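Q: Convert this sequence to structure tokens.
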Amino acid sequence: MSEFLSMGGYAAFVWPAYAVTFLAVFVNIWSARRALRRARAHAQRRLGVAGEPS
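A:
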């Protein structure tokens, strides 16, 4: 198991790369959901529709 975690001596490069990738995916999902919420609220305000709780 420790050999796997050390990645043949490249662990200092591999694990941070995984961390950066997962962070980027998380930020993209968070940002998209936030933008969707704002767009829906903006559309509801423009249409004069009472917002449904979501």
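The helical segments are 2-6, 11-47.
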